[in-house]
Design goal:
93 residues; mainly alpha; elongated
Amino acid sequence: MVPEIFDNVFDALADTPAEAANLKARSTLMTAIVRQIESWSLTQEAAAARLGITRPRLNDLLRGKMSKFSLDALVNIATASGLVFEINVAQAA
């Protein structure tokens, strides 16, 4: 058996390139949002209120439960956190 080599973990986990791209985008957004939240040094309750989400939802975000968040939801949370979301599109290699 020849081992497969992937560019990143999402390429290995996803069934399609589109699914891998979605996972990568969600991961990137989640990481940026978590860093932003941590920079506030607020309680989870206060941070959740600032973002307009519930504390359990914030906890899911902070624990990296990516399957619980759509790309749309993460864009909305990123915007609420004061981040600017930009899309970079490039030709596939």
